[in-house]
């Protein structure tokens, strides 16, 4: 029988009252608030947009949004309109920007919910103007230029036309252009030649928006690396995501502590099994690990369904019984094994996959290196089966 508890992903769980949790992601909201303060100090002249897409990078969108607001974030930023509407549904007021739209999206709902929507192309401008008319109110629109990333945003060649059309819609009372913005391609590689190029494209786009008669409240370009390393990119507002969760966006330059940041998420599990096995015992699917001698194996009840990368097979670091161990053999859907050598542990003892790192545990950055990815992906992929346990929640 499955003895896992059915704990909803966004439940507030007290780990002391819930000692039987298989696994949990502990989310330190005091750390998040202090990270917001540290980031604001890096960009003192700019407003702050807390980026909360993808369930707050896996940390839980709504509790993190509340904590960011408590720390003074004037803006909340998300990718999809559904995420923006979910913030409103949870009672978060104030300014919210979303930027990843597809035709047929909930334009009118967002206009009615007072969400700032991003427009990168004429079809989207037409959609938001129609939605504003249907809603009988003025839509708040931010125009996005592609300064070189090659994803969303208007091409510079299409920008003068888009800004003129937006100004016409503004004069007609359908919209108000509240922002002009873009997104860097390589801000995490300081001195990359694209940075100066994209800044220049952005400045030209601002001049052209001005020529079209637009007067946006906020002009913005800086993600986490831009906030921490490119003061010339701060403009009116910065949009940090990963750094707010205490992860360095430029680990080659320094860890989170070097920027005054502290990791927010700790991922831990209770050992589900500890047993002695003889030497030459295969471990997990495919027997890619075989015990070198008689030893103790501990079973960690987290697997790739919970977001532990299968690429961590044979490489992922875990703190168990006071030492770093390495995932022995393959990561399975729900579980993986570590070899404790001769060390002693008991079922229920804690295995810490990653955390701030100051109690001897690995960090999300260590997992990223072990798996050939970035720490963004390590925290964001922690799945809904892992309850988030919030620490430092304020009313
Ligand atoms: C995700 C995202 C951010 C935040 O990026 P980080 O590198 O996590 O700081 C900012 N702006 C946009 C448009 C994004 O999509």
UniProtKB/TrEMBL annotation:
Residues where N6-(pyridoxal phosphate)lysine is found: 53
First-tier enzyme category under EC: isomerase
Keyword match Electron transport: no
Cofactor or coenzyme needed: pyridoxal 5'-phosphate
Record-annotated active site: 53 (proton acceptor), 285 (proton acceptor)
E.C. no: 5.1.1.1
Any one Gene Ontology molecular-function term assigned to this protein's record: alanine racemase activity
Domain Alanine racemase C-terminal residues, every copy: 264-391
Catalysed transformations (reactions): L-alanine = D-alanine
Protein residues bound to substrate: 151, 333
GO CC terms in record: cytosol
Gene Ontology BP term (one): peptidoglycan biosynthetic process
InterPro entries: Ala_racemase, Ala_racemase/Decarboxylase_C, Ala_racemase_C, Ala_racemase_N, Ala_racemase_pyridoxalP-BS, PLP-binding_barrel
Pathway(s) per entry: Amino-acid biosynthesis; D-alanine biosynthesis; D-alanine from L-alanine: step 1/1
Keywords associated with the record: Isomerase, Pyridoxal phosphate
Domain of life of the organism encoding this protein: Bacteria
Family named by the database record: Belongs to the alanine racemase family.
Functional summary from the UniProt entry: Catalyzes the interconversion of L-alanine and D-alanine. May also act on other amino acids.
Protein name, entry field: Alanine racemase
């Amino acid at each position: 029988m499955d003895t896992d508890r059915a704990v909803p992903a966004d439940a507030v769980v007290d780990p002391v009252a819930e000692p039987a949790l298989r696994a949990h992601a502990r989310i330190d909201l005091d750390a998040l608030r202090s990270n917001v303060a540290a980031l604001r100090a890096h960009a003192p002249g700019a407003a702050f947009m807390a980026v909360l897409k993808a369930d707050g990078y896996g940390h839980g969108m709504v509790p993190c949004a509340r904590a960011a607001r408590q720390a003074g974030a004037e803006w909340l930023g998300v990718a999809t309109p559904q995420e923006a509407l979910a913030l409103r549904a949870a009672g978060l007021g104030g300014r919210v920007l979303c930027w990843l739209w597809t035709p047929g999206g909930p334009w009118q709902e967002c206009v009615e919910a007072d969400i700032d929507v991003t427009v990168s192309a004429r079809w989207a401008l037409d959609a938001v103007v129609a939605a504003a008319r249907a809603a009988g109110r003025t839509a708040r629109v931010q125009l996005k230029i592609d300064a070189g990333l090659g994803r969303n945003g208007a091409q510079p060649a299409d920008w003068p036309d888009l800004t003129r059309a937006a100004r016409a819609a503004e004069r007609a009372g359908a919209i108000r252009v509240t922002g002009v913005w873009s997104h860097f391609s390589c801000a995490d590689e300081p001195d990359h030649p694209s940075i100066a190029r994209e800044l220049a494209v952005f400045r030209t786009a601002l001049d052209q928006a001005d020529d079209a008669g637009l007067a946006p409240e906020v002009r913005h370009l800086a993600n986490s690396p831009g906030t921490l390393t490119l003061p010339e990119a701060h403009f009116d507002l910065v949009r940090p995501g990963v750094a707010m969760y205490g992860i360095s966006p430029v680990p080659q330059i320094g860890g989170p502590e070097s920027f005054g940041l502290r990791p927010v998420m700790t991922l831990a599990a209770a050992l589900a099994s500890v047993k002695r096995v003889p030497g030459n015992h295969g471990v997990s699917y495919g027997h890619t690990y075989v015990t070198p001698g008689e030893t103790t194996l501990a079973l960690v009840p987290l697997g790739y369904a919970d977001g532990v990368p299968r690429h961590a097979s044979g490489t992922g670091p875990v703190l168990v019984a006071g030492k770093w161990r390495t995932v022995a053999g393959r990561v399975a859907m729900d579980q993986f094994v570590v070899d404790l050598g001769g060390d002693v542990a008991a079922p229920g003892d804690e295995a810490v996959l990653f955390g701030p790192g100051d109690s001897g545990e690995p960090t999300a950055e260590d997992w990223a290196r072990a798996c050939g990815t970035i720490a963004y992906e390590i925290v964001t992929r922690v799945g809904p089966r892992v309850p988030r346990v919030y620490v430092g929640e304020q009313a």
